[in-house]
Amino acid sequence: MLEFMDYIQHAFYDATRWNYENSYSHLTATARDLLDFETPRGLRLNISSLSSPNFATSYALGSVGFVDGSLSYLYTSLPLRSTSHSGTIDLHDVIRGYRQIQELRKPDNSRDWEEWLAGRRIDKRDSLLYGRLYLPQSTLEALYLRRISPTSQLRLSAVSDSRLRNGGTILAMHQYDVGKYSAETLYSTDGGLIGLRGLYNFGPDPRSKTREPPTLEDRIYGRFSAGGELYYGSLNKSGGVSFGGRFATLPAHRGIPLTATLTVNPLIGSLSTTYAVKAGRNLALCSKFDFNAYSYESEVVVGWELWRMRARTERKRERSMEAKLAWRLDEVKEPVMPKPEEVAGVFKARVDQNWKIRLLWEGRMKELLFTLGSSIDMKKRDQPFRTLGMEIQYSS
Amino acid sequence: MAFNFNWSPLAADANFYSRAQEMLTTALNKSPKPPIIVDDILVNELNLGSVPPDLEILEIGDLAEDRFRGIFKMCYSGDSFLTLKTRVQVPNISTQVNPLNTYLFSKPSFTSPQPLAASSGLTIPLQITLSEIKLSAFIILVFSRQKGLTLVFRNDPLESIKVSSTFDSIPFIKDYLQKEIEMQLRNLMMDELPAIIHRLSLQLWCPEYRAKEDEEKAQAAKLEEEAPVDPFASPPQDAVDARGNVLDASEISSLSLDGGSEIHSLFSQKNLLRLAALTDSHRTLSLFTPSIRDAVFRAWAGAADRNDSSGPSGAVTPSLTRTLSNLGSTSTTYTFGKGSDDGHGQLPSRPSLVSLHTATTGLSLGAGRHSRSHANRKKKTRVVNLRKSKTTDDILSESGDSETSSAAPASEPLFAKVIPEEPEDGVLTPPRSPYNPRLRTSVRPVKSPMAVNESTVLDPSPSTEKPDSEAASSTSRSANAPSSYQDEKWGANSTFLEPAPNLSNSAAPGILEQAWVLKMAGEIARRVHDEKAAREGFWQTDERDEAPPPAYQPNTSPFHR
């Protein structure tokens, strides 16, 4: 489940019309959410609030043998109008599962962002500031996000911790996304790392005026994307590289939605394929197969998620005072349209070839969002439960 | 002595290997592993080989039903081997890009560039075979029911080991593995293994060992210098007690010339303090005697014998001794030896009753107790060394207490044996060589068979050859040596000649006599003390002025003949 601050950050992306999923680092987001989810450890409480459209705070308290916690504050120059109350939040927004990729959007015209007043430009770029202090480790995280233009964004993140070398690290990243392709350049002070990432989407260009409607007679309607990344540590003279491709069906596809990815790391000789399908309205399955060409090591992971829906319960209406006085019943109003079901909870499970199992149950109870998880190692018969945890969130 | 291991049945047990493999596997996976190892360590193969280790008992310091203390020597160069399997994260080029693999080096994920697949690691199955293990160690094993079993390696047990692995073709990794594994093994044997064994033994024998955890730690910490043995149960301690020597650190270190570590380990600090208090009380005429647990004081044991032996008076000073021997009491022989032995080093410092007592006990108890406590000890070599070094000492030898004390244990048992000898006057003729400075040797003749009368005392030479032949041989002393030092002894005794005649009168039993003896002893002691003080300047020099003994020599001879 997304933390409240991540939720706000995504809300900021949505508000500024930034498609954060159109990036090479999100190529395997579906498999990551279905297979590599983290299970909570110990008991963790989060109390958050979007106290004003521009300001959010969050407090976390955790107990894993010892008590720790964090304080975080967030400020955006762009007022956020999204729901922040944990009782009404849409669970699809905070629980990450099968990611249905969307049709590419045409980026805003930069001239649309200009605001003129009395012959002077008065528009400002939206930015987001975020800070988080972990106690008692005294680790400070900071994030600065700025939409430079409709097609680019600057992201600066830093961590200050006395235990780190040089006392901390800073990562600067510039993202450029025009829909048809996206590119990211980054620099990290840790090792002087320089990185380059790019993703190219095959298919129609969203910037072009003419958009032919999807040919629905095709058996499969989807999009193929390919990308790569390249890193070079200028201080330790080492690097890394990987390539990947993804095919995913688009919402207009009539059949079963599916996502398949292939990533290759030629330096390490590793090859990873994932395949995920949304087998039903509430069920998604995913599998991952890793193979290393150098060591012949392979690994299989299987996972699935099950959404449990529940009909929205109508509140029993009291007989109104007027009706009582008039000695008659209230007029029965037929619901115009059936209300959509709401999510009662999501169950996620994954198991790999070593019989390491992770279970997660996320849902809402009254006004609280909770996450209950455990990781089990069946190889260790005497003590199979490695971790067991519960996380409770409340936000307003 | 050595053990003969029946090695094969151990290995023949069908379940043994599987059980051992399981235990090893769990043990290896219990402790946190370095991040480079990404999988469980599996013990793939274990073979103890066919060559058993050699275990040799070097020394058994203590042996009882509920305790044991010994030193072993273990050598092993067998054909056993051990094969481990695990998977390692190869430190390749991309994993060295630290920001890319946050999970390996605990980089903050917040500033991680979150690479998609560039950070994926290359794990390679690794197989390590440890073979040609060569061990050579001195093992100190201490067991007591209360404190469990303690096993300590005196030296680095691991001589060599051959490590072969999947990466043998890469010399860098091969060297690294070899070095790392050797270091780990050394650590395991020197630190972990004793702790594990000790904990296990505690769990086995002391269910309530939690309460004793502090003690356990303390014991483990000072195990090297102290063993949990009752000092009084061990002979050297007894001897020291009898002599009443102060055992301070310097003396202990001097003792440790030949068996330093052992003696060091035999005395606990507490008991040493008590002993020091005891000897202090002896010196200061104090009547206070600190109680030492589980100890039998010679003073108590000797009380019964005091009257008949009339030794006490004689015991105090050499001259007295001689007087008594003239009277013909059997026990005086011992007294004499004692006196000569003590007299040099001890007498001056212990003037009063206490010295009397010790001497008495020495007289009467020698047969029983000393033989029991000392006869079985093979400490002769120690005596020899010291005595040889001592030969230059002068007769009066107020010199170092430490040597005296160390010499004592060996000499005393011999006395005990000697006592039963019948008096023979024929032996009398003492080869009266002029004064011989080898005073220390005088101890030896005394212990030799001569019992009863002065004549034997006078001529110890036959005795040395007789019962104590092995002792004599061990000391590598020539046969004529005894006679010569007998003379020295005379010389030594002659120092105190003057009071002797009086004492001889007092030899009659009775309470009065005791009181008188006491008084005399005090007086003599005072005199000796004065003399010692007068000669203080000489104390530090080993070369003693031998003038006094010859001067007295004439006196002695008239007295004796």
UniProtKB/TrEMBL annotation, chain A:
Keywords: Membrane, Mitochondrion, Mitochondrion outer membrane, Transmembrane, Transmembrane beta strand. It holds the Pfam family MDM10. GO terms for cellular component: ERMES complex; SAM complex. The keyword Disulfide bond does not apply. It is found in: Mitochondrion outer membrane. Belongs to the MDM10 family. Component of the ERMES/MDM complex, which serves as a molecular tether to connect the endoplasmic reticulum and mitochondria. Components of this complex are involved in the control of mitochondrial shape and protein biogenesis and may function in phospholipid exchange. MDM10 is involved in the late assembly steps of the general translocase of the mitochondrial outer membrane (TOM complex). Functions in the TOM40-specific route of the assembly of outer membrane beta-barrel proteins, including the association of TOM40 with the receptor TOM22 and small TOM proteins. Component of the ER-mitochondria encounter structure (ERMES) or MDM complex, composed of MMM1, MDM10, MDM12 and MDM34. Associates with the mitochondrial outer membrane sorting assembly machinery SAM(core) complex. Lacks alpha-helical transmembrane segments, suggesting that it resides in the membrane via beta-sheet conformations similar to those predicted for other outer membrane proteins and porin. PANTHER family: MITOCHONDRIAL DISTRIBUTION AND MORPHOLOGY PROTEIN 10 (PTHR28035). HAMAP family: Mdm10 (MF_03102). This is Mitochondrial distribution and morphology protein 10. It comes from Oidiodendron maius (strain Zn). The lineage of its organism: Eukaryota, Fungi, Dikarya, Ascomycota, Pezizomycotina.
UniProtKB/TrEMBL annotation, chain B:
InterPro entries: MDM34, MDM34_N, SMP_LBD. Its main location: membrane. It is found in: Membrane; Mitochondrion outer membrane. Residues 304-328, 363-487, 535-561 are annotated as: Disordered. Residues 402-413, 470-484 have a biased composition (Low complexity). Keywords: Lipid transport, Lipid-binding, Membrane, Mitochondrion, Mitochondrion outer membrane, Transmembrane, Transmembrane beta strand, Transport. It is a multi-pass membrane protein. Residues 1-202 form the SMP-LTD domain. CDD domains: SMP_Mdm34 (cd21673). One of its GO terms (biological process) is phospholipid transport. Residues 309-328, 453-464 have a biased composition (Polar residues). PROSITE patterns: SMP. GO terms for cellular component: ERMES complex. The keyword DNA repair does not apply. PANTHER family: MITOCHONDRIAL DISTRIBUTION AND MORPHOLOGY PROTEIN 34. Component of the ERMES/MDM complex, which serves as a molecular tether to connect the endoplasmic reticulum (ER) and mitochondria. Components of this complex are involved in the control of mitochondrial shape and protein biogenesis, and function in nonvesicular lipid trafficking between the ER and mitochondria. MDM34 is required for the interaction of the ER-resident membrane protein MMM1 and the outer mitochondrial membrane-resident beta-barrel protein MDM10. Lacks alpha-helical transmembrane segments, suggesting that it resides in the membrane via beta-sheet conformations similar to those predicted for other outer membrane proteins and porin. Belongs to the MDM34 family. This is Mitochondrial distribution and morphology protein 34. It comes from Oidiodendron maius (strain Zn).
